[in-house]
Amino acid sequence: MKYCNFKVKLFILGVCLCPSFLLAQNEKQKDSTAIYILDKMADVIGDLQAVQFSMETSVDELNAHGELSTYFAHSEVSMVGPNKFTAIVQGDKGEYGYWYDGDYLSYYSYNENNYVTLEAPDTILTMIDSMHVAYDFKFPAADFFYPNFTDDIIEGYDTVRYIGKRQVDDTPCFYITAANSEMQVQLWVTNDSQMLPKKLLIVYKNDHSLQYEATFEKWILNPDIPESIFSFTPPPNAKLISILAKS
User: Which domains does the chain have, with CATH numbers?
Assistant: First the structure.
C-alpha cells in the first residue's frame, strides 16, 4: 500500500512540475485525427437500425505440438436493433450458426446436426456479453457495435495513431494503429461518407505473435430484414443437446 501511495504522489508531483510536457506527450500518443475517425465510424454504426455484412477471418492458434495453425472462415451477419441477430459461419472449424430473437439464442452445428437453445437477455449487446462469459460463444465483429468502442480504445491502448490513407482491395481507407504492452491493433476504415470498418488486424505480442484478421464486405445499411430469419427451426433429425456454463 505504501508503494502504491508513493507512486501516486510521484505521478502528481510530475504533473505539477511539467504539465505542458505531459499534455504534449498525451496528445502525441492519442492522435486526435485517429480519435475523430473512430468516433465518426462509431456514430455511423450507432445510428443504424439494421445492418447486414459479410466478413472473412483468419485466426492463428498453436496446436498440441506448439506449431502454428491458421484457421479461415466466412461469416454472414444480419442484425436489427435492439434485439435481433443471426450469423452463419463456414470455415476450417466447421459450419455453424446463431439465431437470436430477443428471447432465446439458438446455436446449431451443421456438421453434427445438433443444436442448443438458451434463454437470453433482451438486447443484442447484453446477449453477446452474457453468452460469451457463460459459454465462450464468439460472435463475429461484436466489438464494433458497442457504443463505447472509441473510449475503450483510448483507455486500453498506450498509443492510438492515424498513419495515413491506404488501399484495401481497391477500397480507399483511413489507416489507424493502436498498441499496448500486450497487443497491436491495425484498423482500416473506409474513406467515404459511410466510414465503416474495412479490415482489422490484431497481433498478440506476448503469445507467439499470434494474429487475428478480419476483412468486411457487402455492408448493407438499414435493410428491410424479415423477422422470420432470426427464429431458429431445427432441421429434420437434428438432436437437441445441453451445454454447461463455464464455472
Answer: 30-240 (2.50.20.10)
